[in-house]
Request: fold
Amino acid sequence: MKIAPSILSCDFARLADEVQAVESGGADWIHVDVMDGHFVPNITIGPLITAGVRRSTDLPVDVHLMIEEPDRYLEAFVLAGADWVTVHAEACVHLHRTIEEIRRLGAKPGVAINPATPLAAISDILPYVDLVLVMSVNPGFGGQSYIPTSTAKMVRARALLDNLGSDAELQVDGGVGSGNAAEVQAAGASVLVAGSAVYGHAEGAAGGVRSIREALSQGVATSQGEG
Ligand code: DX5
Ligand code: ZN
Reply:
């Protein structure tokens, strides 16, 4: 399981330090949450800050675009250093074209779906993507509670990918921390995004990553019920 801390909950006055903190704690990717005030209510990060993240680490930079008309900005984010670019199925009229364009630009394409969007909406794009993101909160803000039905949805997503023989990553994002890390791992997730659980951890961001890693190693039997 890869751990991808979301910098959404970090101290942006100390961006490079905050990225290095999670790297020292054993993070695998850096997750960058891009919001435009249209697709979601919040406005966050653009290509400039993404380039700052890129300069702060050698880890893969994982850009999650929660924006309308993402095609207009794909090149800017790839030029800023994104290794992975994930777009929302709900925001793309011509999703196959968008996914192919991300690959042509040199990044790995991912597709995300909101909690109320059925997996059927992405079944025909699965053979073309390198990552499927099952949102476990309604996108827009960090620090929300995990929506419990997301676990069963991930189990079904994992089965779809396995049936295809796909080695695409299955990412979970929203409300995940040490209390439910083992649950999402058992459901078949391969990349765990965590923002507030990492950057809000009492022992600092490196300790936040380590506590999730510890929960993953203990597995579902011992961590269930810890909240
Ligand atoms: C939600 C974002 C997530 C979120 C993660 O809109 O895509 O990446 O900020 O934050 P936590 O882990 O605090 O839910
Ligand atoms: Zn995200």
